[in-house]
């Protein structure tokens, strides 16, 4: 039976795979590849917000402010998490919203992509698209963010360290962790 809206937890194998974690850990790139690997559709929370608002994330922050961005982000997360199963790359702050967190808990398998902060700081320097880092030393800003967010990310169903190695390795590490998780929570029925 299709789970109704607000019906609480849905079966583990029917859930969206939601990648959570700090900006710059590779949620979007790895998510896209993971979706291909699993034969699932892919969505990127930030891109969905941008198309819903017809504005870039940077412009939303600059023109409407962070609280409007967060409200839009929560609406987009709700729509995606109440929709069909997919791989979903969430924006780094999405899981901080309590309603989004409840939806993730009930309708997604959450995967915290965790990487060494110095590595993340190096990665985010390649692009200037993140309003929360603008004009700040990336390592200092990310360290402060990690202090607040790591306890929340740590509530994810799975944690996968993606510090070293290529994206392909991260994909395989996530697939492996998911298989273990599915087997433990919902063993496949044998014929
Ligand atoms: C944010 C992360 C960004 C984007 C926005 C805010 C955050 O997404 O949603 O700049 O609060 O961590 P990515 O994690 O995809 O970079």
How would you portray this structure in words?
- This protein has helices at 27-38, 45-53, 57-64, 66-81, 98-107, 117-124, 138-153, 167-185, and strands spanning 16-20, 42-44, 87-89, 108-114, 158-161.
- A five-stranded parallel sheet has the order 2-3-1-4-5.
- The protein is globular, with a radius of gyration of 16 Å.
- The protein is α/β, with parallel strands linked by helices and 191 residues long.
- Bound molecules: shikimate-3-phosphate.
- Shikimate-3-phosphate (S3P) binds at residues 23, 27-28, 46, 57, 91-93, 130-132.
Concise summary:
This protein has helices at 27-38, 45-53, 57-64, 66-81, 98-107, 117-124, 138-153, 167-185; strands at 16-20, 42-44, 87-89, 108-114, 158-161.
Portion in helices? 40-55%
The biggest beta sheet is recorded as: 5 strands, parallel
Proportion in β-strands: 5-15%
Q: Enumerate the distinct ligands.
A: shikimate-3-phosphate
Placed side by side, the strands forming the largest sheet appear as: 2-3-1-4-5
Computed Rg: 16 Å
Q: Which class do the helix and strand fractions yield?
A: alpha/beta
Task: Give me the number of helical elements.
Answer: 8
N-to-C span: 21 Å
What series of H and E elements makes up the topology?
EHEHHHEHEHHEH
Overall, the morphology is globular
Please tell me the overall pLDDT: 93
